[in-house]
Amino acid sequence: MRPYLYLLVTALTLTISCEKPTMKITMVQQHENPGDDGDDFASEFDDGEMRNMSSFDIVAEMKAGWNLGNSLDVEGPNETDWGNPVTTRALIDEISDRGFNTIRVPITWRFHQGLGPNYIVEEAWLDRVEEVVNYVRANNMYVIVNVHHDDTWIIPTYENGDAVKNRLSKLWTQIANRFKNYSDYVIFETLNEPRYENTPEEWIGGTAEGRDMVNQYHKTSLDAIRATGGNNTSRHIMISTYAASTLPHVLDALVIPNNDNKTIISLHSYFPFPFTLGGTDSTWGTDSDKSQLDSEMNKIKTKFIDNGKAVVLGEWSSGNQNNLSDRLEHATYYAQAAAARGIASVWWDNGNSSVSNDGLAVFNRQNMTWPFGEIADAVIEAYD
Fold it and tell me: Where are the domains of the chain?
């Protein structure tokens, strides 16, 4: 192990109130070239233990999660480009204090990745990603690290396949090396919603070619991660269907790379769409509504869980249409339905984003308040 330097600056603030004392820690790390073997990367907040747990055991502990959406995954060079503030330790502490067990950290890499043939990721960007991961691990939470808004170059066609696989392999090699010594609380998600953008089939399951290439890209990513060795030989890795869809023919098309038994299925189910994202239906809660949601969950359970594959709903939520009571009933039923079937779920929170006014945020990152704390609590309590 090569020498490394941690500069740990600790400020302890005690407040005499009903709030518990808080400790804010900022860690600055000095690393070598991001393309090296990663042996010197470690964290004071993660003991590096791999507990030889099954994916089902891991998912059972993940429980309710929260997405740090529209921050490190912005389509621009700065995490504040879409209007959200810089992610701080205090912000992550607040999510943990509320009771969430998992934080998914969506990440866009293309604005920080150099040209071929090496496709080197900027060291400063890897440092920043690791800093946020350490905020999560300091709270002993699960953290999901992914490749998010890189669809402009991850094109699922035979024509682009070789070039994409070359770059994707080099990207995941660097990510995996950076987190090589972290424990199994760090989970990799190879792709977010892999799809061919701006095509007629984008959101209806793609083409047979597209689904085939998504499977190939997952295998390329997983092979690159495993090849880095160390804890990555047995790290749990999430893989998604085409566009993370739950359409039956898309579920059927997913191929588990190498039949790897440390893979977890990642799905996104904004169900029902008119109520959750479409903004065309503000009511939810009839017996028919609940029956249809049960059918959606049972479809997932029958396809994967009953066949030995653990599942995480990496994104779900509902938009604010001045319909809090209906949203609360939906969130409660949804989370309970997922929990009852052994599925972890991660609420998509895009913050106070300038690119979206869909009201998906339950937490206000600007002033650190919970305008929809009842929804957050209902989701958390479903798993308790």
Answer: 35-383
The answer to whether residue 193 is catalytic is yes
Single pTM value for the model: 0.90
Cis bond before residue 272 (omega within 30° of 0): yes
Q: 338-370 burial, b if ≥16 CB within 10 A, otherwise e?
A: bbebebbbbbbbbbbbeebebbbbbbebeeeee
Active-site pick, 123, 130, 315, 329: 315
Q: What is the pLDDT of residues 280-325, one digit of tens each?
A: 999 999 999 999 999 999 999 999 999 999 999 999 999 999 999 9
Identify whether the C-beta of residue 20 lies closer than 8 Å to the C-beta of residue 12: no
Q: Does domain 35-383 have CATH number 3.40.50.620?
A: no
Q: Which residue in 130, 193, 296, 374 is the catalytic one?
A: 193
For the chain, state the CA radius of gyration: 20
Q: Where are the alpha helices (DSSP H) in the chain?
A: 55-62, 89-98, 123-137, 161-178, 208-227, 248-253, 273, 287-303, 324-340, 373-383
| 3-state SS, residue 273 | helix
Asked if residues 281 and 275 have their Cβ atoms less than 8 Å apart, the reply is: yes
pLDDT digits (tens, 9 = 90+) for 323-348: 999 999 999 999 999 999 999 999 99
Tell me how far apart the alpha carbons of residues 292 and 286 are, in angstroms, rounded to a whole number.
Answer: 10
